[in-house]
Amino acid sequence: MTHQRRRALVGLAFVAPALLFVVVFVLYPLGELFRLSLTSSSLLGGEKYVGWANYIKAWDDETFWNALLFTVKYTVYITPILIVSGFLLALLTLAPVRLSRLTRTVVFLPFVIGLGSSSFLWVGLFDEQVGLVDRLLQDLHLVDHAVVWFVDAELGLWAVIASIVWKVVGFGMILFVAAIQSVGEDIQEAATMDGANYWQRVVRITLPLTARAIVYTTLVSAIGSMLAFDQFYIMTAGGPRSQTFTSVYWIYQNSFIYFKQGYGATLSIILLAIIFAASAVQIFLARRTGQT
Questions:
Q1: What is the SS3 assignment for 85-151?
Q2: Least buried of 41, 55, 126, 198, by fewest C-beta within 10 Å?
């Protein structure tokens, strides 16, 4: 056995566990999901091959496309809020003050709370009778009476956004803190000696040198938002009049409420393809911007 062949086998042995994990827990489930999408499988039993009939049905499914549009709207709203607030909090907690580490810990702490638990917490906070949010808004004279948040789709959306920003912003903050700390002090000092003030250094040095972290955080945030389910299931229950249905919520309804497992698999494949395409475009544009 040649030395080169031996090295190749050793390398294959090292990556074999990871490859096995990907095959068993990613590729096989995806293949099974696609197979299921071509059937009329039901949780009540029975499975019949129907070909592309489910995909044709999905094309005419107005509720699914409305849910997808609402999900995109939610993603477009919340992603910039998470990125900007996370970056600003990173700058704030990097300030050379004694309580910066404590502040960083407090901001990150909600991220470790389960999404279901935090959603139930915010349902109580937004309650029109005993909720802290309405009481605070009335004490500040911002509203004249208690706001019933979840009977209006737009108010319910912003209530959900507030709860998710509170919970998730610490994750982006920690990523940005690590990225900003990786910027060399000598670069910052050179810019200071050249007369650049704090915000000039942030815009012209920190932002370009942390672009990869910003792209990664944006991508993770966008994908997570496109897969939103728990917060809407608990806080709005898809209402009012199904106006806050997300894509995953509608997939759940079909798969586990209407027992249409095959059709639910079809909607999952379509959503997966949309997320994959959007992520690929985002990565391509980020790389092209980085090269220029």
A1: HHHHHHHHHCCCCCCHHHHHHHHHHHHHCCHHHHHHHHHHHCCCCCCHHHHHHHHCCCCCCCCCHHH
A2: 198
CA Rg value for the chain: 24
Q: How far apart are CA 225 and CA 282, in angstroms?
A: 15
Q: What is the pTM (predicted TM-score) of this model?
A: 0.90
Indicate whether 126 belongs to any domain: yes
Looking at residue 57, which CATH number applies to its domain?
A: 1.10.3720.10
Cα angle for residues 173, 280, 247 (degrees, 5° grid): 75
Domain span holding position 269: 44-291
Nearest to 65 by CA among 233, 274, 286, 291: 274
In the structure encoding, which two tokens stand for residue 35, read together? 């197979």
Q: What is the pLDDT of residues 148-172, one digit of tens each?
A: 899 899 999 999 999 999 999 999 9
Residue at 183: amino acid letter: V
Are 244 and 70 contacting, i.e. CB atoms less than 8 angstroms apart? yes
Sign of the alpha-carbon dihedral angle for 279, 206, 105, 84: negative
